[in-house]
């Protein structure tokens, strides 16, 4: 697949790999740090609600800044600020829970700058027929990073306390500093890259097409399950399998499984396969959720994450590939700037995520055991309508091609 990748795409892939190495130190272990302070699912939900709200605000801020600042430079700023938030969090220590919403918002705005420009640069510099090849390589590199980073960081945090050589707080400070350095290097690679200037006076789509309204609904439904997934699987690991070392080990294991799957099938995937691949994710997630709900044990939790790891890469790679195809079609037909659609998409995705987290917090208040036991099944069920919508969109794109 690499022979079809251009030099600019290789530059992007290197940057994405470095940012993927830093990602667990920024997001996953920010959540585990907050859990250490309170062991409260609601605190994690509040932090992530702030995070996803901030992402949409970051996309909107980026739309304003793109009038004067090039996309590659804004991507670099997003990397820089993402790395600063975890460093501030570990400095606050036990007081971090008090500021969970503000810390989540700050991290989210930074991620909004990062992801809005990452999506825009990917959309600009990748085209069919090599787009899915690029996404496959990107996904594989992300999975490799997902093996290395959480495993090393998780065990580093846990072993210091066990051996008595350094404290957990010191370990978190060191990992947050390493994450910051990796993000700084990732940003420097994209600094010179630009897309067409974004000087549209409006920041929101007016009259959207039927296809784009379908995309909006799909993003909202996907966001609901994604929001719940940002907290619930992590809590299951912490409750059934252990602390940071278990989080790192499980995420590394699932990343290995995902890497094998995406490597084997990535070069064979075509446009009409996306809905089918997404259905495999729903099926495996439902089976894993049912096994966990029935046996409700550490072994069942391990089976749950093993099944999820086998198909996790299929979900997002197919979902994102369809989204980029819809954006291409919409921008060609309506002569709108691609970033306007990416901004609109992010609003609906993160609205869904906030809804999912709010539902999670609401159910946890009255039925915490029910949520933890059956929540994974609910996540899979929510995505069943998304499968039909994806199938509908791929058919529409194929007929108009």
Give a description of the structure.
With 401 residues, the protein is mainly α. The chain is built from 14 helices and no strands. It is globular. The protein starts with 6 loop residues before the first helix and ends with a helix. 53% of the residues are buried.
How would you summarize this macromolecular structure in one to three sentences?
The protein is an all-alpha fold and about 400 residues long. Helices cover about 85% and strands about 0% of the residues.
Task: List descriptors.
401 residues; mainly alpha; 14 helices
Q: What can be said about the biggest beta sheet?
A: none
How many separate structural domains?
Answer: 1
Instruction: Write the CATH architecture name.
Output: Up-down Bundle
β-strand number: 0
Distance between the termini: 24 Å
Q: How much of the polypeptide forms β-strand, as a percent range? A: under 5%
- Helix fraction, binned, reads over 70%
Shape: globular
CATH topology: Growth Hormone, Chain: A
Rg over alpha carbons: 20 Å
